[in-house]
């Protein structure tokens, strides 16, 4: 769900840049040296998941995996997205450097919220698949809303595109919920500590 270069006005660009810097700094501060491989693996998954995409005006539809990334990384999702999105700009010209901050914020903040909600579900004793489904679905819903808001704040000409982005991501919400449920169930069986659950 990349927003293309030259689309947004200065207001959302500034907010996105500041938010990204703060989020990345907070994520790096929380990152321990032994967590770097996990952050790298999630970053690689985020990078690969969006290579197959469908363009819709100035945005695109593809798998995000931001909710499950937030479930596994928390605030460290910000630096993971920095690497993934920067490489996409550099190698494939997806998005752009000017909108990098906005794209990081729309993906990472929504993934962080979805991940926190999913973790709360799991810690409360509900099935791990439900927590994964919540993380995956909420991550996409919020990312879509944030992207639509960024477009809407950039002028009335983008209101139709913002609505189209919202509608186009309904199937992605369902798919990401299913993927999140599967991944969370698998991780719960193999290494539940990654989901905030003590290993038995």
Sum up the structure in keywords.
70% helix, 8 helices, Arp2/3 complex 21 kDa subunit ARPC3, 200 residues, 2 strands
Strand content: under 5%
Question: Which structural class should the secondary elements be placed in?
Answer: mainly alpha
- The radius of gyration over CA amounts to 16 Å
Number of helices: 8
Q: Could you say which overall geometry the principal axes of the C-alpha atoms support?
A: globular
What's the number of structural domains?
A: 1
Largest sheet: 2 strands, antiparallel
Keywords: Cell membrane, Membrane, Transmembrane, Transmembrane helix, Transport
Pfam family, one: CbiM
Subcellular location: Cell membrane
Protein name: Cobalt/nickel transport system permease protein
Description:
The chain has 200 residues and is an all-alpha fold. Helix content is 70%, strand content 3%. It is built from 8 helices and 2 strands; from the N terminus they run H-H-E-E-H-H-H-H-H-H. The protein has helices at residues 10-30, 36-49, 66-73, 77-92, 100-123, 128-152, 159-168, 170-190, and strands spanning 54-56, 59-61. Strand 1 (54-56) and strand 2 (59-61) form a beta hairpin. Helix 1 crosses helix 4 (77-92), helix 3 (66-73) crosses helix 5 (100-123) and helix 4 (77-92) runs antiparallel to helix 5. The longest helix is centred in the last third of the chain and has 25 residues, at 128-152.
Q: In summary, what is this structure?
A:
By secondary structure, the chain is mainly alpha-helical.
Which secondary structure elements does this structure contain, and how are they paired or packed?
Layout: H1 10-30, H2 36-49, E1 54-56, E2 59-61, H3 66-73, H4 77-92, H5 100-123, H6 128-152, H7 159-168, H8 170-190
């Amino acid at each position: 769900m990349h927003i293309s270069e030259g689309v947004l006005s200065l207001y959302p660009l500034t907010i996105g840049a500041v938010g990204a810097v703060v989020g990345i700094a907070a994520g790096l501060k929380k990152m321990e040296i032994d967590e770097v491989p996990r952050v790298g693996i999630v970053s690689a998954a985020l990078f690969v998941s969006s290579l197959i995409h469908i363009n819709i005006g100035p945005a695109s539809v593809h798998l995000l995996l931001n909710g499950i990334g937030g479930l596994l990384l928390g605030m460290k999702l910000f630096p993971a997205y920095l690497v993934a999105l920067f490489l996409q700009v550099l190698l494939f010209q997806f998005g752009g450097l000017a909108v990098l901050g906005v794209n990081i914020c729309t993906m990472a903040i929504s993934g962080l919220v979805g991940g926190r909600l999913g973790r709360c579900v799991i810690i409360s004793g509900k099935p791990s698949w439900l927590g994964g489904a919540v993380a995956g679905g909420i991550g996409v819903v919020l990312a879509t809303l944030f992207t639509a808001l960024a477009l809407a704040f950039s002028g009335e000409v983008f209101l139709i595109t913002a609505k189209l982005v919202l509608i186009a991501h309904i199937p992605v919400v369902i798919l990401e919920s299913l993927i999140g449920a599967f991944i969370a169930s698998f991780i719960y069986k193999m290494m539940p500590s990654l989901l905030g659950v003590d290993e038995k």
